[in-house]
Amino acid sequence: MAHKLAKCQRETFLAEKVVTSRFENMRATVYYGGNTHFLKKDGTNMLLTAVLLAQAIMAIFISGILYSFSDFIMRALDDLPPKNAVAAMQNINVSVYRSIFMVVFISLVPLSIAVSIWSIITTGWSGSLFVLVGTLLYVFGMFILTGTGNVPLNESLKQIDASHQEAVGAWKSYYKRWTRLNTLRCIFGVAAGVCWTFAACFVL
After folding, report:
1. Cα–Cα distance between 119 and 124 in angstroms, integer?
2. How far apart are CA 142 and CA 193, in angstroms?
3. pLDDT by residue (tens digit) across 158-173?
4. 1: exposed, middle or buried (C-beta count within 10 Å: 0-12, 13-18, 19+)?
5. Is the model's pLDDT at 155 over the cut of 50?
């Protein structure tokens, strides 16, 4: 009788452990928004995940600021007399080099490259695919496009005397080309942020 009682108690204890374990897993799944992938990460992967999410936020932050130019700032400048628009944009192009925006914009290039190398070392090439794609999108689609497209246009506008009649034609050409390139680099920046977020949440 005592043996049966002990066996019954042991089975009850094991059943309680199973139920408790399933409950904890269910609670963790709900806490992580249904993504149990987070539960399998070790310390290194958790740190890499945090850095990638920070990169994604930075890329989308930069893209959001730039998109405000395509959305309404450039249109507002275009509504001004061309001479005033040229003078205003020339001032913006000087002021941007003393902004937090520029610090984030440039620093994200070496950071993303370093994190890509880190990801390859810790997770291999297959696990780093979206990290690498995001880095390529940002470095080439955002940074290099800016250096080869928008910056030369800014330098050309810098040479224009806003008080002269030539400012009228220069602004019209600049406005269309600069805005088109700006919208394109915004798309690349957001795409990079999406890739890094996907890698952080579902791949690593």
Report:
1. 7
2. 11
3. 999 998 989 999 999 9
4. exposed
5. yes
Give me the long-range contacts of 168-174 (CB less than 8 A, separation at least 24).
168/82, 168/83, 170/82, 170/86, 171/78, 171/82, 171/85, 171/86, 171/89, 172/82, 174/86, 174/89
Indicate the average pLDDT of the chain.
86
Q: What long-range pairs does 82-87 form, CB within 8 A, spacing at least 24? A: 82/167, 82/168, 82/170, 82/171, 82/172, 83/162, 83/163, 83/167, 83/168, 84/162, 85/171, 85/175, 86/157, 86/160, 86/162, 86/167, 86/170, 86/171, 86/174, 87/162
Would you state the pLDDT for residue 203?
82
